[in-house]
Amino acid sequence: MRHLVKKYFRIWKQLSSLAIGSYLSNWIDSGAYFVGKCIRFGFFLLLIISIFRFTDSLAGYSKYEVVLFFLTFNLIDVFAQALFRGIYAFRYDIQRGNFDFVLSKPVNPLFYSLSRMTDILDIAFLVPIAALIVYAISRLPNPPDVSGIMLYSAFVLVGMVIALGIHIISASVTIWKIESENFIWLYRETMTIGRFPPEIFSSVIQLIFTFIVPIITITAFPVKAALHILDWRWMVFALCYGGAFFGFSVLLWRASLKKYSSASS
Amino acid sequence: MFVVEVKHLSKNYEYYRKRPGLWGSITGLFNRDKLTTEAVKDISFSIEEGELVGFLGPNGAGKTTTLKVLSGILYPTSGDARVLGYTPFKRQAGYQKSFALVMGQKNQLWWDLPPRESFMLNKEIYEVTDEEFRQSLDEFGELLGIRDVLDVPVRKLSLGQRMKCELTAALIHRPKVLFLDEPTIGLDVVAQKNIRDFIKKYNELKKTTIILTSHYMEDIAQLCRRVIIIDQGRIVFDGRLDDLIKRYAQHKLLTVMASDSGIPRGEVEQYGDIVEYTPAKVVFKVPRDHVKSAASKILSSNLPVDDILISEMPVDDVVRMIFNRS
Amino acid sequence: MTALRKYRAIFTISWQKELEYRFNFFLGRLRNITVMLLLYFVWLTLTARSGAFAGYTRTELITYVFGINVLRAVVFGTQSRQVATDINDGSFSAYLTMPVNHFLRTFSSELAQRSVYLLTSTVEVCLFALLLNVDIFVQSDAVMLTLFFTSLVLASALYFMLSYLVSLFAFWSREAMGPRFLFEWILEFASGAYFPLDILPAGFLIFLKCLPFAHIVFLPMQIYLGRLTIAGALLGIVAQMFWIGAFGLVVMFVWRTGLQKYTGEGI
After folding, report:
1. Which residue of A has its CA nearest to B71?
2. CA atoms within a 13 Å half-sphere pointing along the CA-CB vector of A41
3. What is the distance between the alpha carbons of residues C58 and C134, in angstroms, rounded to a whole number?
4. Which pairs count as long-range contacts for C49-53, CB under 8 Å and 24+ apart, including other chains?
5. To the nearest 5 percent, what fractions of chain B are helix, strand and coil?
6. Which of B199, B202, B116 is nearest to B157 (CA)?
7. Left if phi > 0, otherwise alpha if psi is -120 to 50, otherwise beta: which for B251?
8. pLDDT by 10s per residue, chain B, length 326
């Protein structure tokens, strides 16, 4: 077991170093993507701040609470983007048949495919986000205690596990339908829902995005846990759901690998 | 004990047909016609350790599909395939560490980076020790002459150099079995020969079992004593290259060299079909059992013959004939 | 006339291409709906107390959100994105040998894509308006409507001009997708495709109005909502024409110099 962990860590390290090399050799692209993400981030923050020029609460939350929802969304989103970046190249690899090589090697194809392009620039982006989170938390009307912060971290982790599950499902769908590059983009876009506090939505939509597409579970639960407004029953639910969701995604992946038939001979 | 054993292997693919026109596109949103192709139909063969076997066949004959099944990439639809005692599609690490796949049309090297980086990745994946890694790199760098390009980004390399690096990447872990799918495709004659020489040397040196597919006859003729010909998913021939010619070529070639005055065309037409004619040299296609008599007739005639040569048909022609027939 | 037929053929084949990739097509639409719903609920919550927010009535804000869904379909396209890819992988060479104008060719396939999206986005908007039971502001003033449609056509041309220009960057670098990504996100926000620009602090608003982007979504929406006087609308339209003319010249210049740079890499 330890041997396996060590092996995979070494592969991950090598993959990341390859990715960095690749990003550096395409510095215009990587730089422009980075600036683009900063602009998107800045504009949304600007929108939230602008909204609070005209009101002092959104769905019952104060300015820094809404900002915290937005930052937490970014934390998880960017983290998932950085670590599971390979999913965006997956379709290309399938179409070109390069995935065949992966399958013929003694490495877990899912691990390889997801972490193949680990994005270091995104990880760098996490630093200002984390700093802003600390700042936003300090500006809250009632800053959370130690237990609140621990709950926050725990549910960020749960969110990451579910996000990983979504990436695995997306990779599986790519195998079933080669033209489906939008599947992961659909997730990216629905993720948008998580930028704002869930209470703005009608209850039907809240239910859908908690149970069926668990965006709210991923992004809003950590904040609510930190603010001590998440009922313990919801906490238990999130833990069970996360486990089940992840398990399902892995089963689906296995089925997809069976189904895989190469591009053309 | 066979290294590769294939019994009654079949593999089907499913795909969809698009109906023509705009209306077809719209109705296609709701249902599409499903079609099945049988890429490989009930093939059986086995290969011994250290053999270098050539798979020959036109595009879409099923060569690559067979290699993919043997690599564990595709599940067989029916039948059985075993390599080194393993069932490939189970994809056990033990098996994966003992074979390698090289595909001429696809690349495993990272495009933007020097090949050395990709080799390092394979080193970690195949758990090769630093020492073995260094040795392999030295050895292949020497044999293939790629020392100078190890640190140049792959996209700057010529196709030939890239192919050599692809081979190196596949051999870092010293596989016992090697599947080469069209390793010389698109290369110029010199680069083709380099790759060919390497494969030959490697096979002799390491006693590695190699299956090679190609549609360049030259590759097969130079490298393989045994050839398996696949057409439309079926094996049409499996045996030694010379047997192939004996069995399928009903003609031999008779080359007559003339001394300085030359041979007038009209006087030799009676001896057989003329394939090539210049006054100094005439090549005939003659049925096997008539070759001797034709030769002696020519020699005993009063034509200005300088030399006479009997040879087999070129393999190319024989194979083309087989494909045309089926 | 025959020239027109050429581009019509390109139009039809692009239509088919859209439908061929049905999975992507459906998901692409679903993606727009998500953005629409998110913004709808944000404004709904914010106008819950007083029925108005930041100088907009609830109906106006919601019309803005639903309106952008259709406007995006008409104005934004992805075909010019393809130009960058084509130049980078060398398939662009094929166009150079054909007797077609590349700008018009791309525009034809863009129009095809937009017409498919226009159809679906209109259906979406009607469906959700019924489903959520929302009031949508219908502009009935003929002058304003004329001005609106004029500005819409110009906005669509301006977007294409800018987008095509950004793609031509591929002549100078293999790395054209990053700059396109940057362009697209600046466009999303600076054009007002996410929220009406005048909720921003005055300094930002003035800055954004000086850029061409604000004339692509924000201006037509303002005209439709009747928030501009006739003079104001006309001024906006003149500004649109100015930007189209200016960028038209830049595109021509960049195209010419770029072609000399073109290496046909990848063929």
Report:
1. A104
2. 19
3. 10
4. C49/A55, C53/A54, C53/A55
5. 40, 30, 30
6. B116
7. beta
8. 799 999 999 988 877 776 666 676 667 666 767 778 888 999 999 999 999 999 988 878 888 889 989 998 888 889 999 999 999 988 888 999 999 999 888 888 888 889 998 999 899 999 999 999 999 999 998 889 899 999 998 888 998 999 999 999 999 999 999 999 999 888 888 989 999 999 999 999 989 999 999 877 788 888 998 999 998 899 989 999 888 888 887 888 888 888 877 788 887 888 888 888 888 888 888 888 888 888 888 888 888 888 888 888 877 777 777 777 76
**Is B126 in contact with A106 (Cβ distance < 8 A)?**
yes
How far is it, in rounded angstroms, from Cα B114 to Cα B266? 64
pLDDT in tens, C4-50: 777 777 777 777 766 666 666 777 787 788 889 999 999 999 999 88
Give the three-class secondary structure for A58. strand
- Look at B75 and A258 and tell me if their CB atoms are within 8 Å: yes
Q: Which residues contact B290 (CB under 8 A, 6 or more apart)?
A: B272
Test mutation, B40, B127, B151, chain A, max A CBs within 10 A = B127
B209-214 and B52-56 strand pairing: parallel
Residue of B17, B22, B23 to mutate when probing chain C, most C C-beta within 10 A: B22
pLDDT score of A181: 60
Distance (Å) from the C-alpha of residue B63 to the closest C-alpha of chain A?
8
Q: B28 Cβ partners below 8 Å, 6+ apart? A: B18, B19, C19, C20, C22
Region for residue C51 given its phi and psi (left: phi exceeds 0; alpha: psi -120 to 50; beta: otherwise): left
Structural tokens at position A99: 């995935």
C194 CB within 8 Å of a chain B CB: no
Minimum distance, in Å, between the CA of residue A35 and any CA atom of chain C = 7
Cβ-count burial B162-179 (b if 16+ within 10 Å, e if not): bbbbbbbbbbbbbbbbbb
CA-nearest of C84, C77, C82 to C116 is C77
What value, to the nearest 5°, has the Cα angle with vertex A93 and ends A88 and A98? 155
Q: Per residue in C73-98, is it b (16+ CB within 10 Å) or e — as a string?
A: bbbbbebbbbbbebbbeeebbeeeee
For residue C21, the distance in angstroms to the closest alpha carbon of chain B comes to 9
Q: Are B103 and A97 in contact (CB under 8 A)?
A: yes
Rounded CA separation C239/C215 (Å): 8
Using alpha carbons, list the distances in angstroms from residue A169 to A80, A256, B270, B321.
Answer: 14, 10, 74, 50
Q: What is the DSSP string of A66-116?
A: HHHHHHHHHHHHHHHHHHTTTHHHHHHHHHHTTHHHHHTSSS-HHHHHHST
Distance from the Cα of residue A126 to its chain's centroid: 12
Closest by CA to A7, choosing from B74, C36, C170, B93, is: B93
Cα dihedral value B42, B46, B47, B49, nearest 10: 140
Q: Give the CA count within 13 Å in the CB-facing half-sphere of B149.
A: 23
For residue C200, the surrounding DSSP H or E stretch is none
**Global ipTM:** 0.87
- The tokens describing C122, both together, are 């209109």
8 Å CB contact of B22 and C15? yes
pTM for the model: 0.81
Per-residue DSSP letter, B249: -
Whole-number Å distance between alpha carbons of A8 and B125: 8
Contacts 24+ apart (CB under 8 A), C105-108: C105/C7, C105/C10, C106/C79, C106/C80, C106/C82, C106/C164, C107/C79, C107/C160, C108/C7, C108/C8, C108/C10, C108/C11, C108/C14
DSSP-derived letter for residue B88 is G
Strand pairing report for B99-103 and B2-17: unpaired
